[in-house]
Specification:
single chain; 324 residues; alpha/beta; Arc Repressor Mutant, subunit A; D-Maltodextrin-Binding Protein, domain 2; 2 domains; 7-stranded mixed β-sheet; two-stranded antiparallel sheet; 12 helices; 11 strands; 44% helix; elongated; DNA-binding; WH_DNA-bd_sf; DNA-binding transcription factor activity; LysR_HTH_N; transcription
């Protein structure tokens, strides 16, 4: 189909419709961000192209002619069709955009994911990301059942039955309130002491809980919790009261350590008080496209932070492990 000679452009039709809606050429010019003389010149050019008079110009203002009103009626139909076209194309573009559904434990979601996503978006702004935040066990479940394409968890072991890649490590610290007896102790606390002390714990399924429990169990059976709390925020608040010690990610404890509302207790086993950050996925669908790029960006950022990524039995020599 070839457009007939004299076909007007859409912008001048939109300007003419604004004249009809607002009642004056000056008001229409302001709506479109142009001067009144410029708007008048555009309408004049449209009149020459269509070879019909659209406006009656007078010192008191401009009025649409009968022909102008007829053109406006057609223009509204044309502009509405163009608007529908643009909206449909936007929907098609959104439907075809690469999408990635991820799930992450809260610590990673709060302190790592924003940086990883920003690094991915720098090179691939077209990728649409959705994020669900749960504890590590729940994240693994979301990956297993296909709700999430990719997960990020922390803990001492890779979740059973999933492919994974170690991205980095997170330091854990023993913290107490300033008035707690451990706040001024001279000797480092040992794993055995921690195991025999009633601590503030996260709920079962938390990556932090699993890490700390496994570490303490190597020294002695862990004592019953002083409290089990469903968020790190609740544990921080309880620790501030002096209720009991807690073992927290340094990322979580840092603000309170700076202000002095919590005190770090030196640990005789500090080198062991760490947990690993991992990317996880279903073994039969290793990350590709946006997922593989995100894992790569995350690993690079963790290395830049000084994280030492260990090559263990869960980590294949290739960039994406568990893909075999």
């Amino acid at each position: 189909m070839t457009l007939p000679p004299g076909t007007p452009d859409l912008e001048v039709l939109d300007l003419l419709v604004s004249v009809a809606e607002l009642g004056s050429l000056g008001a229409a010019a302001r709506r479109h961000g142009v001067s009144q003389p410029a708007a008048s010149m555009r309408i004049s050019a449209l009149e020459r192209r269509l070879q019909v008079k659209l406006l009656d110009r007078a010192p008191t203002g401009s009025q649409l002619t009968d022909a102008g009103r007829a053109v406006v009626a057609h223009a509204r139909t044309v502009l509405a069709a163009v608007t529908d076209l643009v909206n449909d194309v936007d929907r098609l573009r959104a439907a075809q955009a690469p999408r990635l559904r991820i799930a992450a434990s809260k610590t990673i979601a709060d302190h790592r994911i924003p940086h990883w996503l920003a690094a991915l978006r720098t090179d691939h702004p077209e990728v649409v990301i959705s994020l669900e935040v749960e504890n590590s066990t729940q994240v693994a479940d979301l990956v297993r059942d296909g709700t999430a394409d990719l997960g990020f968890v922390e803990g001492p072991h890779p979740p059973a039955g999933l492919g994974s890649r170690v991205l980095g490590a997170d330091d854990l610290v023993v913290v107490v309130a300033p008035e707690h007896p451990w706040a001024n102790r001279k000797s480092p606390v040992t794993l055995t002491e921690l195991a025999r002390t009633a601590l503030l714990w996260r709920e079962p399924g938390s990556g932090t809980r699993e890490t700390v429990w496994d570490l303490l169990a190597t020294a002695a059976p862990p004592a019953s919790p002083a409290a089990e709390l469903g968020s790190t925020g609740a544990i921080v608040a309880a620790a501030r009261t002096g209720m009991a010690p807690a073992v927290l990610s340094r990322l979580i404890a840092a603000p309170d350590l700076v202000t002095g509302t919590l005190v770090e207790v030196p640990s005789a086993d500090a080198v062991r008080l760490t947990r690993k950050f991992r990317a996880i996925w279903r073994r039969n669908t290793p990350p590709s496209g946006p997922g593989e790029l995100l894992v790569d960006r995350a690993a690079r950022l963790e290395i830049a932070r000084g994280a030492v990524v260990e090559l263990t039995t869960e980590t294949a020599p290739s960039p994406v492990e568990g893909a075999r």
